[in-house]
Design goal:
The structure is a single chain. About 0% of the residues lie in helices and about 70% in strands. By secondary structure, the protein is mainly beta. It has a single domain, classed as ATP Synthase, domain 1 (Sandwich). It is globular, with a radius of gyration of 11 Å.
Length: about 80
């Protein structure tokens, strides 16, 4: 599936992933290939994603919204929290 993580400042990540885990406002949830359509709000926490080439990576966000539709996942985040 294809994942895009976009903040108001820049596109944080764009590419094919095997799975992605999001910090929902009511708890973490995972998206896999062929997931049903979904729209959800995000809380503060890490978006963790697994790519075949690079393995697991993550970015910490401060809220936002995520949409899942036809194996494309778009996360519009308020801001990125730098480590």
């Amino acid at each position: 599936m294809y994942l895009e993580v976009i903040s108001p400042d820049k596109k944080v990540f764009e590419g094919e992933v095997e799975s992605a885990t999001f910090p929902g406002t009511d708890g973490f949830f995972q998206i896999l290939n062929s997931h049903a359509p979904l729209i959800s709000t995000l809380g503060k926490g890490p978006i963790t994603y697994m790519t075949e080439k690079d393995g697991q990576d993550s970015v910490v966000v401060k809220g936002g919204v995520v949409e899942v539709l036809h194996n494309k996942v778009v996360a519009l985040v308020e801001s990125i929290i730098e480590a």
